[in-house]
Amino acid sequence: MGTRARRLSVVGLVVLFLVYVAATLVPVGEGTVASLLGEWPASAAAGIAGASLLLASRRWAATGADREAHADGADGPAALRNLGFAALAWCAGGVTHGITRVLSSGSVLSLTLGDLFALAALPLFVVGFTRFAPWPGGLRTALRHITDSYVCAAAVFSMVWLLLFSPLYDELGEGSGVLGFALVYPVADIAVLCLLVPLVFMSPHSTRRAVLMAIGALIVIAAADMVGAITRLTGPPVAGGLEHPLRFLGFALMGALPWLVEHRPGARPRKITGRGLYRFAPELAAVGAVAVAAVVLTVAGLRLPGVAPVLPLAAGTAVVVLLVRILGMLEENATLTRMVRNREGHFHELARNSGDVILVLDRDGGVSYVSPGTAEAFGYRLEDVLAAPVTALIHPEDMDRTEAVTALFDERDGQGVHLRLRVRAADGTWRHTESTVSLYEQPGDPDRLLVTTRDISAQVALQDEVEHLTFHDGVTGLPNRSYLEERASDVLAHRAISDEPTGDIAVLFLDLDGFTAVNDSAGHVRGDHLLAQAARRMRGELEPGATLARWGGDEFAVLIEGIPRAQRVVDLAERLGRVIASEPFQVADRELVLTASLGVAFAEEDTDSGDLLRNADVALTRAKERGPGNVEVYAAHMHDTVVSRLELQIRLRRALAEGEFFLEYQPIVDLGSSQVTSVEALVRWNRDGEVVGPDGFLGAAEESGLIVPLGEWILREACEKVAVWRVSDWDIGLSVNLSVKQVLSPRFVETVEAVLADSGLSAEVLTLEVDEDVLLDGGGEAVQPLAELRGLGVQLAVDDYGMGYASLAHLRRLSVDAIKIDPSFIADLGRDDTVTLLTHTIIQLGRDLGVQVVAEGIERPEQLEQLRAMGCDHGQGFLVARPMAASGVESLVGGEAGANL
Questions:
Q1: Helices (H), ranges, 304-381
Q2: Of 56, 245, 334, 674, whose CB has the highest number of CB atoms within 10 Å?
Q3: Which residue segments constitute the domains of the chain, with CATH numbers given?
Q4: Measured between alpha carbons, how far is 507 from 503 in angstroms, rounded to an integer?
Q5: Element spanning 682, H or E
Q6: Is the pTM of this model over 0.85?
């Protein structure tokens, strides 16, 4: 409908209303034209209004023109439909009244079928009106609104009663009982008006014009009902039947409502006091009605005969003071509401700028608010989060943790709940989150939950990585020592409390023989690569019930659970040894063949994890003592042996500190001239008056590392003694044995240089003897310092030659000065043709290489004669001379050389 048509409609309605009002002034018989027409014009207007409203409802629903109203919570088509039904109900009531008056002359002071139709129209009108102006949210707010409306209605009815109906009540006298029937319409109209008028102030902006027209129409209809009630009680029509034009006007406004509004929104709502008090319209209406009623009732009370003026004044002023107090409470309420709204604004601002995800959830998990950070944190769109309950995003295994949240609605103690949950992101991955859930209360709204969620996936990943690094080896990726210790403890503890048989529990320790040489020669990086290769080989041999770990260095450990037979553990140990030695390891451009020593220990009934691991280590130590590639199963006596070895190492340190070691010297002679050419320094230990040879303590000294300071003491002591002998014009050399640890110790070359410098012994006089193993185990690292010493003039000899794996290549690489034939060859000389041939070959080899050959262990004259015949230059042994103290050497050599010692 265009603007011009709208204006013409308004003008037409005004003209019709004025003509109808004029009809109240035109007398006809005992009445007027308006009273003679009765309800028929108004009923016709109500019917037309109903049809108009229903037609507009269908039109609005079809065109969807009330989208803005829908966004504000209103429903235009439903509102018009219910208002149309209300208009039709009024029409039916009017028609019924008209027919009843024509056919019957019953009393007007009784309810008829037409009255029931008219009264039924009011609930329909209320439903339609509240579709335009929705009820305030929340049950608590709705109850407060209804109670305030009742107070307002009671106050208004009190004034209407006092001003209009109280005099009629007195005039009716004994017939006053019928007054109640006449008051049905005014009371119902007052109650509905007091209920709906406050909603006008709280109605949405988009429906404000429609709400104002609807409430205006109801006010006009209520005024007509009030005039009609007076007419019923007094008899003749009031003001010539004014109720009929008024009712006509009300129905006309209802019928014109959808066409005059045409979805035009009303003006923006204004704050009555500038502080938001329009939101308290029900309270303001109740207070205003009570205030006016208090004044009217007080004035009326003062005029009552027989009542002292002080009582109405006291009651009236008390009500006024109470109203002032209520206004103060409303102001405070408005202030609190403003603070709540400010807090809500701050909350939303914080949520927008926070990196956390902030949610407001209903009791059933539905999302009513989600912060913008959700998309950045989890990749969801806003509508996706609002579409389904948040519980659909929580990992099923973590749902049990959310049970504590439901208690927040019952306990209401203000304490939040902290949860760690896995939440599904938009890409399908599960994110670890940390959430704080607390009760979220808003005035007039049901209780909800405020959830603050932070993505801690990176923190959890870091914790997992730290835990992995704590319990795993970075080189091989295997569990480390700490993990195996805890695992062994858990397994044994479980066996102790379990009633079911679990099989044997065992620990296997494995050590790579000769691995130290790999690190020393190829470097630690290539050594780590070899360890990783060894770990892969061993993993391929293990069964599911075994845990392989790197114990430390070149040692590995295997925890075996539930093995039914002990022999399977031993078989596994042998398989691991074979897989290590089965093929060479690739280290840089070389291939190295390694073996493995293994120790096995089984858990007895009362064995704890510490003892089990210690026993396996003891068994490994025993296997290594037996030689490379051996497997040893722990026995009780091994522990005693290890304890004794530890006690021996402690005792050796004290012996070195207290000077309990001393040297003996075994002469080396020229087999051709029988002259002593040099001496070999041999260490002895005076242990509580008992002389202990090197075989009784050098092994323990080697294991403990004591061999380095002990070797330095031997070298210094021998050099100083030989230096004294040489000062006495005795041309004699010195041989001192070295171990691998001495050669590889830090500052080894500097130590030898310092000893020579301090003692004054010439470097050419000193011969350092090393076993063939030094050349093999030490690798490049061992050869280098020996070569440096040889460059200084120090002589180098290979001791016990023939029993190891040293080849001619090793001799050529190091350029040794002497080789000493192992005593085992000399012992079988003349008795075993093969040994005799080998001995002759070694002597000839030495002569061809130009190195000195020394035969060790000469004990029989025939051995000496054969060695001389083979061309051996030098020898030593009990036949030549036994090891002796320095004074014995001085006596022996002094007699031969005539030295003045």
A1: 310-353, 373-378
A2: 245
A3: 1-133+203-260 (no CATH), 140-174+281-351 (no CATH), 355-462 (3.30.450.20), 474-634 (3.30.70.270), 668-682+705-894 (3.20.20.450)
A4: 13
A5: strand 676-687
A6: no
